[in-house]
Amino acid sequence: MSVSRHENDSEESLIEAFETTLSIRPSTTDYYDEINDISIDHTVLPDTTINDTRDLSSTVGIEELEENERISEQIPKFKTKRRYSLLPRITEFKKIGSPGLEEYYIQQKLDPKYDEILRPSLLIDEKLIKYHHTFSDFISSNPHISRESPRFQFDSEKTLVILSPYSSEHSFGRKWVTKTYLSTIFERPQRLLATCIGVASAITMYPFYYKLINSTKRSSIFSSHVRKIHGRNWPKKLFELCLESHEKLNNDELEVPQDWNTGDIYLTPKTINAIEGVIGTIETAVDALFKVTPITGTTSTTGIAETVQAPAPASGKAATATASSTSSTSSSSSTKTTTTTTTAATTATTATTSTSSNGSLSSNYNENNTTSHRRKNHNLAFVVIRPPGHHSHACLPSGFCLLNNVQIGIEYAFEKYGVTHCAILDIDLHHGDGSQDICWERAGFTGDYGQQEEDEIIDPKLNPRDDYGKRFATYPKVGYFSLHDIKSYPTELGFATKENIRNASTCIMDHDLNIWNVHLQAWNNEDEFYKHYQTKYVAILNRANQFLNNCKKQYEEENQEYLAQLAKYNKMISTKPHLSAELEKPTPPPCYKPLIIISAGFDASEYENPQMQRHGINVPTSFYSTFTQDVVKLAKLQTNGKVISFLEGGYSDGALTTGVFSHLIGLTNDDGLLWNHTWGSEQVVKELIKGCKKNWTPYKNPKTDITIWANEVIKLGRSMMPNCILPANYIYKDQSQENNREGMVRTQEIDRDGKFRVVNKMVKDIMDTKGGIGILESPKSRKDEGLNDRADGHRVTRHTRSYYKRV
């Protein structure tokens, strides 16, 4: 390999030929990043220790802690006890009576005590001002890109990338822990920065294939589509725990129940902001694919600005609209639109349908096949949210996950748009035990950690269980198809329970269940990997195809039966009108309206941290592009091309930057093979993860294609979510306490309206290139809490479930 060095920037390139789609020139504007940023990088490259910034000095034996965590994560009795710990407790809030959940929610948010505590970060750039400026500079510096780069005919054919800026509000808050302990917290806000750099990588290659937006929508944790998945009690319990964490963290107390895995789950008051933002972003994504927008030039509630133009109206039909590629203001037109709204009032849940005068059924699915509808709505969306969700059961948080994002999205799509069937394709390294468990509940069975009857928001008497504990399956019908490592959590090699292994290996396509699990295999080269892919891994796509085919066939059969019954009914009414009061009109089946959702975890990447990927099982970077492209092909056959991808796992900078890059290259409406093998090389990883580091500065005079390209990628990525560029040792602090103790420090920052404003000391610490938030001292000794009970005198700062079981 040749190494080229340049005097001005110390860049190096180990790639003989790095290929971009078009030649890229350095942007003209000097990059200036006023934020002192850093991310704990867990990326490990073969035979190198590049970018390992973790502090290895600690008073805690980290190997012992990790071993205890792995053992304690698999204690069978843990989850059976947890169910009772999630039931409502008597708290100060209940003294005011027993209000409805929405009233309860409003009362807590109106408490002045929480106004300052829950105030979102001033660094949130809701309008993406910095990104739009950086992107414009990139295009103006490369005018040939506008002329030569491929693009789609309609703006809606682009892949929609939706950022959730409030996701960074969920952060670790135990300020007494050591630096080494903090380095073991994998699920952190800094993941968003690496994800954004991955997004920027795809955008620089195909600038006109993607549309980037912020979802500033925040939705209630007590929304019906959340409670239908998680029941009455868990959302309320989670909300209470977040509020209670304010006092506990200030008093140096553990903020989560003692029988939880404290290394996986943490809370702060601002976790509420993140959860509300995640739910709102999920809704934004679903709206973008299915919402029929009135003809207007204003920005919709989803945050997507569109200009639409109505064609000549068709008789008896709502006027359709075509999305424009730019946002502008136009005069409003009064146009009749029809929105399909579905509610689950009974166990035989019905979706909105329309019957023509001759008795034939009009399917919402078929309506989506019109050209005008495809032009108006996006078909492909990638949703950047955290915390992840696929480990979350209905009433059990687990594996970094508090709520099941995918299942909430499916329920929202069903409630609002009548989406009746959905195939979940999960490619996270770990089995999505929570998503699968909820599928068992949807099929009418009792979930392993599901809702109790008193927890359900729909009266269980409307759909009673039979003698064997099964109910009628309800809509929406959801299939779960997963590719994962059977040796990793929740089936950790050497610590797995029989129950977890069985769940992660289930394959069934009957009894209202559509579940198929495939296990990853070791490989030595990409040829060997793709033999596994073509012969084994593709099974999850084939089974998803089978599921959707069967559902469509079942709908057609039910619809034919309905039409036959309707014809008999109409004949009876016409010949014997006196019997009309005694006859019951047939009910049409819910219109078949399918969707595919990807649980896009990137922790199976070849560049993931070995601590997360402990058994040597991974996938090449090209897999994410190949698999995603196959999903898009499946969607064009089954769902009219509609796919939503939700970010799940991925915990090293290298795994997220390259994994998201590859995933988005596959998630396009271009049928060609777009991924280039040079894009997944080690040198690309080395260049991209530099942008996730403290005080990143671009090359002053880059000479090679890869460094020129990486410069522009990192500038774009860092401009997307400035609030996720945080110090490595960043820990949540109580803003109100900081303001009272230290007062306001005058410094300027552009607010959401593009104006300069004064920000507080916490924001100053984040922004100051010479500062940063340090690790505070450990809390004072509390003998009654057993924090100093080690025989060797070392301080225990992280208790596991096995510890509490022993106590």
Automatic annotation (TrEMBL):
Listed GO CC annotations: nucleus
One Pfam short name: Hist_deacetyl
Composition-biased stretches (Polar residues): 358-371
Biased composition (Low complexity): 318-357
Keyword Coiled coil (UniProt): yes
Regions annotated as coiled coil: 538-572
Domain of life: Eukaryota
GO molecular function: histone deacetylase activity
The Histone deacetylase domain, residue ranges: 216-542, 592-663
Protein keywords: Coiled coil
Amino acid composition bias (Basic residues), ranges on this chain: 796-807
Region annotation (Disordered) ranges: 307-373, 777-807
Single GO biological process annotation from the record: regulation of gene expression
Extent of Basic and acidic residues compositional bias: 779-795
Name the record gives this protein: HOS3
Species assigned in the record: Candida oxycetoniae
Lineage: Eukaryota, Fungi, Dikarya, Ascomycota, Saccharomycotina
